[in-house]
Amino acid sequence: MIRSTAPRRSTPIRVALTGANGGYGRTLLDQLRRLPDMEAVQLVDPNVAGVGRMLADLGVDPARIATPATADETATAVAAGRIAVLADGAAIDFASIDVLVEATGRIEAGHGYADAALEHDTHVVMVSKEIESVAGVALAAKARAKGLRYLPGDGDQPADLLRLVDWVLAVGFEIVALGKSSEYDLRFDPATGVVDQNGVTIDAPGLADHLLLGPDLHATLDARAVQVASLKRSAAADACEMNVVSLYTGAVADVESMHYPVVRPDELADVYATREAGGLVGRTGAIDVFSMLRLPGEASFAGGVFVIVRTGDPVTWDILRGKGHVVSRTGDFAAIYWPYHYMGIETPLSLAAAVDDTSTLREPRQHTIMAARSTGALAAGTTFRVEGHHHEIAGVAPVIVDPDAGEIAPYYLLSGAHLVRDVAAGELVQLADLDDVPQAALEAYRAGLALGV
Description:
The protein is of the alpha/beta class.
């Protein structure tokens, strides 16, 4: 059997996970069982019973599960080798954890957990991109001031893309574009003319005529977009993830809603070439998202990440093209990509980096804002709710904009807030338009802005 030869720790990394009862939480907990030098000791979720059932499914002896109501009770349970399952943060014992993984996806609660962890000298791995987009800059600054680490969680696309960017820059490339595929592929069956996007199907027989990029790349992309126009392909989660990448890299969106072209992976280097070279990219270092088009039996991009670089010596890149690498038709651009994101399975990398202080990420800054642009006229008194799998808000569309455009309200600060004035269709929602904004998160956002770029 092949085993890791990496040295193991004498004392395991002790992990607390908030928002434990979900798909992400399960993948992390399953992986931690395989690592003798890491252990989940405290799990926080309002659905305590659901977490208990999940642990039982993962093979945890019910006798090892405790449900303490106070921090002292939690400390006692952890000292006895039990897993403490907590309904909220009031019973967290920070003295018995090394890293808090925040995965609630809820602004007020998640920011509170992360901030409390730093107050108690505990490292933070941030999986909740919603919180990162609003308060990540301030939380990272607070961690640094206290000699702690605050890191995005490996396994979600932002951290995976940041690792890929780090590799690309380390070997000397110039980045033209970077991004990810959308969560769900467009699976097209030419035999039936049907496109399936995660169980949602449409008839699009005309797509068969546009499976290959024609001489006019833009004409092909436009034709594909028309064929799948009835499908919802963009999501607030996509914009949030790319905004997080912007915080750490300074990359900006080429267009505020991103391009979302329908693309096959072997076309990425052509599609994300510069406009002067016939591609989509109007500015160097643009963040974007594409919808992957594939045929039955073809592998998925799996929500993976990509970087487009400028090539160099033509002979070198002809050699690489011959080995199957994705190089543009002109030979001037290449796509480097990782077709995966493994959720909590990868997060132990972040846990180790937090404790060992081995992260190479730069300090985040609010280079862009994930803002909310009204999709129709909104009346004063309108209350906003974050809803659904993709954590979207009815009545507004997520956009990525420059922070110098005024006192713009970050998209997820709208959560639970209501309008104090009418907002016309197409306007960006401003902070002054809102009441009942989560105050601690608002203060963190403003503190992050004050740090500049």
